[in-house]
Amino acid sequence: MPVAIRPAVLNDVPAILTLAQQSPAAAHWTSGQYNKLVDSGVVLVAEEAGKPCGFVCAKAVAGEWEIENVVVAAGFLRRGIADELLRTLIQRAKHEAASAILLEVRESNRPARCLYEKHGFRQAGRRRSYYRDPVEDAILYALRFER
Ligand SMILES: CC(C)(COP(=O)(O)OP(=O)(O)OC[C@H]1O[C@@H](n2cnc3c(N)ncnc32)[C@H](O)[C@@H]1OP(=O)(O)O)[C@@H](O)C(=O)NCCC(=O)NCCS
After folding, report:
1. Span from the CA of 7 to the centroid of ligand 1 (angstroms)
2. Per-residue pLDDT at 147
3. Domain range holding 100?
4. Distance between CA atoms of 19 and 54, rounded to whole angstroms?
5. Could you tell me if the CB of 89 is within 6 A of ligand 1?
6. Does the pLDDT of residue 25 top 80, yes or no?
7. Of 10, 11, 50, 98, which sees the most CB atoms within 10 A?
8. CATH number where 33 lies
9. Is 79 close to ligand 1, i.e. is its CB under 6 Å away?
């Protein structure tokens, strides 16, 4: 069954929260924060047979986008779904004349770091002991667009 990528609507927020809660490596945001991102940020959902199986969300502030989370459900991993979500997000950022997409990720999160590097993100810094439980550095990544 093919996976479709589409913009999220407010009704998707409960499914988005469930996907995030079931993924220990994901960032954990409240439903209020997701509602706000659906309203005024960018949230894309990957859907198979009408059921969300992944999402990516970003804030857009003055031309700089920041990815807040990207999650694919456990049973759907390694099928190119995050690739498709990121490709669509990057296309949209370019289309909307963003200057860059930024993000931070746990240093040990190899799947996510490989994903971002595959899509052209470059390491742009480090925040020491940024995460808790367990304490770990954040690696900052940036994808900058030519103007
Ligand atoms: C990171 C994540 C979104 C990738 O989702 P996915 O749909 O399985 O990824 P894809 O199948 O589209 O793979 C795309 C690329 O990601 C990288 N990747 C994905 N899983 C990987 C793994 N287990 N190990 C190494 N690289 C991996 C690879 O570069 C891969 O490209 P390739 O297939 O050409 O090697 C998924 O592992 C996930 O939900 N992780 C938990 C949540 C999380 O950590 N989010 C990031 C928060 S900042």
Report:
1. 20
2. 72
3. 4-144
4. 7
5. no
6. yes
7. 98
8. 3.40.630.30
9. yes
